[in-house]
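Box 3.1 A note on notation
Throughout this textbook, protein chains are presented in two layers. The first layer is the amino acid sequence; the second is a token string describing backbone geometry. Keep the layers aligned when reading.
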Amino acid sequence: MSLITRGLGQSGEIRAISSIKIEAVAQAITIEIEVPTITIELTEEGETTDMISIKQGEAKTLSFTITDSEGLAIPLTDATMSFAVKEQKIDTEYIIEKSHDAFDLTNASNGIVTLSLSKIDTAIEPESYVAELKAEIDSNNIIKSEDIDFVVEKSVFH
């Protein structure tokens, strides 16, 4: 590679400088980040389940336990909880929406929160919906459940 420079002498000479060597050293850096596995266990009437099955107009209490990959409870005492049900994930409107105040946080320090659904909450069309639980520990740490099948069955009673 040659670099041509213009000198400042009287004749305005041009000098060629050859042999400028530029070296760049690239190094690959590997960063491993361990993302903890979070388990959200849904308990309905004392039984562990991966779906919620409810009849129209039925009141029901759900219990959620949140643990890390080692099975240790994630304290939820300062978390902001929410729960939502939609017909489809892409919908913009919620069929059921429960904010933090609807949760019983008595056992939050042990990673357990409960949510009561009223008969008014479940007085919806019988079909399969999708639900999700969210625990916002802080603005940088938000835990969301996997999709929860939320099935509303037709009731004999009105």
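The chain has one domain: 39-153. The chain has a mean pLDDT of 81.
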